[in-house]
Amino acid sequence: MWPGPPTGQPRPTPGSPNSTDASDNASAVNGADWAAARVALDLLSPKWVPAMLAVLAAGPRRPADIRRQVNPDITNKVLSWTLRRMTAAGLITRRVIDDGQRAAVLYTLTPNGRALLEVTTAAARWTLTHPAVPHRPTTGPGRVH
Questions:
Q1: Is 82 within 8 Å of 46 (Cβ atoms)?
Q2: In the structure, how many helices (H) and strands (E) does the chain have?
Q3: I need a labelling partner for 55 at 20 to 30 A (CA). Which of 65, 85, 92, 99 fits?
Q4: Domain limits of the chain?
Q5: DSSP string covering 23-56, please?
Q6: Residues facing 92 on adjacent strands
């Protein structure tokens, strides 16, 4: 379950002494905000989505180019599944270009995909500025003890 704010407490206004971060006008979030954040995290949860967003930020790419730039070891099944999921979520568009001899598929980042890329970039910056946070998985092989 996604943790929410304490119940029964009023939502602080930006800049108030109880605000979580008055310097950037951030305010505490309510339960609906937490649910919305969960949607964004679910979109980013497949392993390769953040990297694919970053690759597509440079412009349209063919699937083979995406694979080469993200990780050459991605299987066709995983690459196709991830691209289909990102397309269905409205993060990227799929365009078939047929020149009469052979067809090519190009994927392009949408405005929603660009907006989500900003979230992943902010998360990466946060991770780099908080060195006490483990950079390895906390469960499974290679876990932090």
A1: yes
A2: 5, 2
A3: 99
A4: 31-129
A5: GGTB----HHHHHHHHHHHHHH-STTHHHHHHHH
A6: 109
Residue of 12, 92, 5 lying closest to 46 (CA atoms): 92
Amino acid at 51: A
Report pLDDT digits (tens) over 71-103: 999 999 999 999 999 999 999 999 999 988 888
Give the CATH number of domain 31-129; options: 3.90.180.10, 1.10.10.10, 3.40.50.620, 3.30.530.20: 1.10.10.10
Which pTM does this prediction carry? 0.67
Encoded amino acid at 58, one letter: A
Question: Is residue 14 within 8 Å of 27, Cβ to Cβ?
Answer: yes
Q: Smallest Cα–Cα separation from 95: which of 56, 54, 48? A: 56
